[in-house]
Amino acid sequence: MRHCIQGYIFFIFTLLFCDEVNAQYNDTTFHYVGLISSGSYNKTNSSTAYLLNNVLKMGIRKKDIALNSTNSFLYGDQNKKLTNKDFSSVWDFNLYKTFPQFYYWGLFAYNVNYSLRINNQLLTGIGIAYKFIDQPTRQINVSNGILYDYSDINLNDSTREIYSTPRNSLRLQIKWDIKNLLVFRGNAFLQNSLQDASDYIVKTDVSFSIKIKKWLSLTSALTYNQMTRTKKENLFVTYGLNIEKYF
Q1: What distance in Å separates the CA atoms of residue 119 and residue 12, rounded to the nearest whole number?
Q2: What pLDDT does 26 receive?
Q3: Angle at 38 between CA 80 and CA 35, to 5 degrees
Q4: Which of 41, 95, 121, 158 would you call most buried, defined as having the most Cβ atoms within 10 angstroms of its Cβ?
């Protein structure tokens, strides 16, 4: 609950100091800050369950390069039993050189995921992406690259494993803005080991937002994760607020 309160304090602070903003990067905007604070709560006569999710995004964009970071914390509890205590920090850069529709990317990520039995995971790598559609209101791109995965996981309740493997990382990314009012975002990842065909990671994030102001939206999000090495998967749906500021 403490993390949720901290998220909403940040939300109120941002709300007080935000002004009208643009819908995306342009010739005069070079920085981005976004906060998504969401969750779900369910209570019956015999059970209580809640899920809290705070995501902080930041970005810097210049002519030929962009640096982005996404930091998230997810906490879940059911009948006073821990179900989720997941932290993720992802830093990536995009280099826009050579051909207009192509760009290069690099990534560094650190993950802790209680529900997937991931104690620590480091991912780093590089790749290339192609933009099929790149418009202010519509974006579709596909990327592929090679990641190095160093992980500390629990295979079961009594067996712990530390291992490393190279992975191929395939991603589909979609953003659709309908009349600057309804916004759909989707990301899907398939990260399979190059050493073991049965070892792969699936990640899917889908969100739908209704804009109240240019900087404030109501958001519903669905997230699915699967890790075959630990034989674990999770699926959760959250509702909340999304604040975005470009400057």
Answers
A1: 33
A2: 63
A3: 135
A4: 121
Estimate to the nearest angstrom the gap between the alpha carbon of 194 and the chain centroid: 24
Contact 106, 93 (CB under 8 A): yes
Q: How many CB atoms lie within 10 A of CB 68?
A: 17
User: Which tens digits make up the pLDDT trace of 156-207?
Assistant: 988 999 999 999 999 999 999 998 889 999 999 999 999 999 999 999 999 9
What ranges do the domains of the chain cover? 2-246
pLDDT digit string, tens, across residues 148-159: 999 999 999 889
Superfamily of domain 2-246 in CATH is: monomeric porin ompg (2.40.160.40)
pLDDT along the chain (247 residues), means of 10: 43 39 57 94 90 95 92 94 95 90 96 96 97 92 97 94 97 92 95 97 96 92 96 94 91
User: Tell me, what amino acid is at 63?
Assistant: K
**Which two structure tokens, joined as six digits, stand for 189?**
């990842």
What's the pTM value of the predicted model, to 2 decimals? 0.85
